[in-house]
Amino acid sequence: AGTIEQTFLVQTQVFNRLCKDQYTTVVNGSLPGPTIYANEGDTIIVHLINDSPYNMSIHWHGVKQTLSCWADGVAFITQCPIQPGQKFVYKFKLSGQEGTLWWHAHLGFYRATVYGAIVIYPKVGTSYPFSKPDEEQLIILGEWWNRNVTELQDELDETGVGPDSSDANLINGFPGDMYSCSLSSDRRRRFLKNQENSSLELSDVGSYPEPGTFRLKVTSGKTYLLRIISASLNPCIFFKIANHNMVIVATDASYTNPFNTDVIIISPGQTIDVLLTANQPPGLYYMTTSVFVNSHVQFRDIPGTAILEYEDVGIFQSVPKLPNIPSHYDRDLFYNSMKHLTSLVSSPFWTPVPLEVDENMFITIGLGFQPCNSRNPNQICAFLEYRMAGSLSNITFKLPTKMSILEAHYNKVDGIYTNNFPNNPPLTFDFTDERYMFDLEKLMTELGTKVKRLKYNSTVEIVFQSTTLFTAENHPMHLHGFNFHILGHGFGNYSPLKHQEKLNLVNPVLASTVSVPGNGWVVIRFRANNPGVWFLHCHNEGHLAIGLATVFIVEDGPTSSTSLPKPPEDYPRC
Ligand code: C2O
């Protein structure tokens, strides 16, 4: 296996989007940042140089980091931030996974613009478990704010609310035609209304083609592997291509049985690899990203767009066809997609579901309140004396500030965290009963840096139960350091009597992010065979920022090859 060595230079520079200049923090001057291309088994070395005015850390999302927790890149969990003017070398191996992953800043809201792809090709000498695509293309879904992300962060730190929905959805860094500066809101509305019959006139489109819009040029008959990444901060996304179906072949760098669909449903943090065949009449077709919302929060109803362009079609010959954009509230469409996907168990990287469980955890997910102590007299707390807080089993996670949890664990330093994250929530009630939505007693959370310790190689089952507390929102739960099996999901309260029987123990999807339905549940299992300190959190950045997180500490195994190695020499300290 080889070694891939890259330099990531973090800088803040001016980008123009939505007709406005904006100071933007990016890696190597590009948005999205550089892609890491590697084969399974390769070692990755990234020299991170922080030339921005902000603290930084980079996380390699979905990378299992076997025995390399020091490189996981989570500020205050596995390392202290890399300060302005400082460097750090991230070194880790990509093993036991193939497909698409990504990297992003793991500190505050910087991941809004500090992100890029990781492409893991099959191990040298092997090939895909599906017929080889003619070409490959990254599709990176992001968001854009017409404000400096640092401001958004400050606002949220004060009030616990925010950020407001972003100003645009991006595809490979650009919002596309529907955000064209020359498009009046009236024409934009007409444009969207026309999607059903796709009878658009050139005059309906702004300055089509909008400069920068991503265009995927295809040749009739060829097959393309699209590696779709959701770098979106908060919303779940429906991704469609007019007139074209896609076949899902992998998710979170783990192969699935081929699954044919006309819509890709992707939560923040997830990656989905699909095959697309250019089998439609040569022409222009829009790819769209639209938002799924499952509570009545503010959201943007204008899709981001890119264009699928068949060879030999002149740019001005026609306006691209629009797909039918799903309803923003189509909860059934959203969650049904989870039902049908199964793992490819013939993959060399498949691991069977642990059938014996050592740790049975039941974790409730909720939004609640903490006392507000706004330091800024101009900022009003969201709810008089209270600020919003996210919680797992009613505990709002507080990041340490003096030392990373990993360093404290490794050096056995007291006072940074406590080992008492519970296996069961302190409160039991009818979790999906809407009467409890505003029950102040249940809404007050406990603040703490409570972690759950796991014995090396123990097996863990987690039932995530979303509650009605405050609002029943969707939560894309992400676990670092592992791929877990997603055994089942449903709406309402989880009941072992009713649901245990139906869990898929045979070929469930392996993933590192799973969407827990608002007012619903998900069951996952994993084997704690990777020593280290692993963050578990909602990948909705607005929720993570208000403490919807916890930490697993996996203890060392019996031998040196099952124990955490020493920290790297240049390990950033606080
Ligand atoms: Cu993609 Cu903890 O994050």
TrEMBL record:
Matching InterPro entries: Cu-oxidase-like_N (IPR011707), Cu-oxidase_2nd (IPR001117), Cu-oxidase_C (IPR011706), Cu-oxidase_fam (IPR045087), Cu_oxidase_CS (IPR033138), Cu_oxidase_Cu_BS (IPR002355), Cupredoxin (IPR008972), CuRO_1_LCC (IPR034288)
Plastocyanin-like domain mapped to chain residues: 10-123, 136-311, 421-556
Any Pfam family: Cu-oxidase_3
Name of this protein: laccase
Subcellular location(s) per record: Secreted, Extracellular space, Apoplast
Example of a GO biological process term: lignin catabolic process
Cofactor(s) required, per the database record: Cu cation
Catalytic activity annotation: 4 hydroquinone + O2 = 4 benzosemiquinone + 2 H2O
Gene3D superfamilies in alphabetical order: Cupredoxins - blue copper proteins
Hydrolase found in the keyword field: no
GO cellular component, one term: apoplast
Molecular function in Gene Ontology: copper ion binding; hydroquinone:oxygen oxidoreductase activity
Naturally occurring in which organism (per UniProt): Lithospermum erythrorhizon (Purple gromwell)
This enzyme's EC code(s): 1.10.3.2
Domain of life: Eukaryota
EC supergroup of this enzyme: oxidoreductase
Family: Belongs to the multicopper oxidase family.
Keywords assigned: Apoplast, Copper, Glycoprotein, Lignin degradation, Metal-binding, Oxidoreductase, Repeat, Secreted, Signal
Source species taxonomy: Eukaryota, Viridiplantae, Streptophyta, Embryophyta, Tracheophyta
